[in-house]
């Protein structure tokens, strides 16, 4: 018998971690609901054809495939062998694997919308909080099973959706007490920049170089742009673009001066202006928006607004991101469904909250009261009192057997239980009990009838 | 492009269903917490050696195995081919699959306890609510992905645990408003019956026949027992056992008369007596316990108390079950950890609640208020009011674009939104808004400043 172990890159979550993670999940879920988003859950397994070819060649390799069942069925063996031979030749084959584990929440969402679009109410606002699986090489902070936490609106081009999603980010992080900057840009502005400097075919080169600004600095970015075939004039224009600074209003003016003479540039600036103005007019605490024209969000399917969230006071990559896209479900035969969505990086949010010690104390408390077990008659009375506390919603336990004080105290301590109720023969006789605060060490003797009025 | 579809036996859960399911899950979780149980989450994937051989030969076949990644890596292909050849010969091979999807929550729990027993506090009380996957042939009410919902205490022989678990069942179903009978038996009583009638080697035969009583009736059970080699005298003793009836106290007396003269019988009756007495002494509503000596719970690893839950007023198999076992982690090299656990059948509980119409109305409400969009200035004011309501916790939406009344009403209706707030040019001017109850059709015009006092 070998020692049991976990698959590489996967984790068990014990009570404390589950409670803290649920605090994050529940905060995010409740804000999604506050903004009218509805929950969706899709199965862990999808058909291979739903997933393959959607994440690029590298992505395809990282999808966990499920071996068809019944490979031990002699009838199927030969078919399966043929399928395996196809895999040997570098081709996928459904004879050996028809299903795979979900790689993200977007494709299953698109598949769901495509399958059910006749029944859905548009704009369709859904949120989804479920694990995904990727055969990435495990490393610090990267797991093979991890949760994604997405909200999307599809079937609407209205920029009010962008305003709403900005507010969702702001509300969630304010509820979690994490100070953040909400970085906004618009893909149309980047496209306009490419138009202005070097032509639209240079968009990818420009985006890749810009994306590195944080890491390598402006001089190296310039070098790279030259290497990628841009002229010095063009590089200087891009440098001016990257140099945009000041308040959001000032930034919009500067970017408008650089790219506002193109159709894309004008529209991109207009859209950002709408979002910024709409939010500035709303009551209450203002979201901390930063118009960040260096923001690119990789080379994916975004076509309008893009988002990225940076936590302040802590060294950490982005803890959220998203953007607008023109077509969610075209790949599944349902065209013309534009939308916009955001995502929360729960593992990183967890790390930020641990580092800044932001988890509230009460999240970490399971059982609130331990009743000591000091004999048969005593424990029966304790049990009776416990049932009364429970019916008032207090989380209680009775120690499972009569044993030394010491052992019962240790149990309470290890389980982080804040109160003990001690009921020995004297207390039984006098119809009292001792309530001990295990954090402060204070204790008082009260009448058993007073217990329900006690604060825990 | 083929029409997208779901893998056989899997389901998407839309908003209404997710909300109802969460109502069940949250009720169960909160009661588990009330009783001092702590959450645990384990990964979807386990190593093959953790799962294989734990569920019998049939079980092994129903485990979903995950194809190793990198089968397209030429270096690995030959190894993989060798592994596939082993599968062709009917042997499992880790060269092709090292990981598999969890088949239940008990084995991952045992694996977790075995890996971490040095750090855990015993008795260890954990609950776990996660999906499991089985390659069963899909049919009505049987899925390939479904949730299990378990609570176990390990490291304690105390029968107080049995009392607690009985109360958990009773509390959960009372909170869900499902009338149930909690059927209790004890494996030691069944063992004693076998001892008394035909010897311990007949335990399996007797159990299998008894298990069918509900379906085939007493006469057919007798026939089967004869076929299985029991004498008429023995069969008559078993028939007397199956005929036990009356109050729980009367039943205990009758069973004691039949099997109480064996060590097993005496202990089994004593244990049941303890549970029944302990519960009878507790305050509040009494759990509806039925001592059911025909209850067997298949041929699994239970050794003491066994539970099964029957919903009343509805035709449905058991909606929960569990029992005591002597050894959770022996298979993983950590012996002597006895425990007791229960499980809730969430899919069936859902069906019962649908049939008896037990889901509370409010569970089915997502967005509470829809603000109509009747123009640019109007919608900006509506947006402002909406943000105020949201900061009071009211779930709201603003319709995403200015359009006909009709369309906005239809959106509210389809999303089951109970209130609309209508703010046109008149209301904008007069600083009022119209609050319309979309269920009753009633509407009132109020000052915008009064909106926060409104009940939704």
Automatic annotation (TrEMBL), chains A, B:
For the keyword ATP-binding, the answer is yes
S-adenosyl-L-methionine recorded as keyword: no
Enumerate the InterPro entries for this protein. Answer: aa-tRNA-synth_II (IPR006195), aa-tRNA-synth_II/BPL/LPL (IPR045864), Anticodon-bd (IPR004154), Anticodon-bd_dom_sf (IPR036621), His-tRNA-ligase (IPR015807), HisRS-like_core (IPR041715), HisRS/HisZ (IPR004516), HisRS_anticodon (IPR033656)
**Which of UniProt's keywords are assigned here?**
Aminoacyl-tRNA synthetase, ATP-binding, Cytoplasm, Ligase, Nucleotide-binding, Protein biosynthesis
One Pfam entry name:
HGTP_anticodon
Which of this chain's residues are annotated to bind L-histidine? 104-106, 134, 148, 152, 297, 301-302
> Where in this chain does the record put each Aminoacyl-transfer RNA synthetases class-II family profile domain?
1-349
Primary residence:
cytoplasm
Write down any Gene Ontology CC term.
Answer: cytoplasm
Give this protein's Gene Ontology molecular function annotations.
ATP binding; histidine-tRNA ligase activity
Localisation: Cytoplasm
Q: CDD domains from the xrefs? A: HisRS-like_core (cd00773), HisRS_anticodon (cd00859)
Question: Whom does it interact with, and what assembly results?
Answer: Homodimer.
Family membership noted in the UniProt record: Belongs to the class-II aminoacyl-tRNA synthetase family.
Name this protein carries in UniProt:
Histidine--tRNA ligase
Look up and give the organism this protein is from: Deminuibacter soli
Gene symbol of the encoding locus: hisS
